[in-house]
Amino acid sequence: MSEKLKIKISIADRVYPLTVETHQEEGLRSASKKIDTMIKQFEQSYAVRDKQDVLAMCALQFAAQVEQKQISISQDNDTALIRLQNLDKKLSELLENKNVLTK
């Protein structure tokens, strides 16, 4: 069983106490730093009324990045599948031709 850690993560000037697995700590701390960096960028670039608006924009940006990565992975998988199907077809044709010649 993994060991649990009690950590405090700060996001948008609020502290969130969490109990996490040891292997999750680094990722959570890194994510909170990225969120705070993004918050500062949005606050500097746009007239923001409150933190909720900035947090919503951060959530949208992170979700869009995840979605784009999934689309890229899907396209890569589709390309690989097509290549494998073409290779299978060529190998089948070669084997069929070899069988015809040996008979």
UniProtKB/TrEMBL annotation:
GO biological process: cell division
Assigned keywords, A-Z: Cell cycle, Cell division
SUPFAM superfamilies: Cell division protein ZapA-like
This protein's name: Cell division protein ZapA
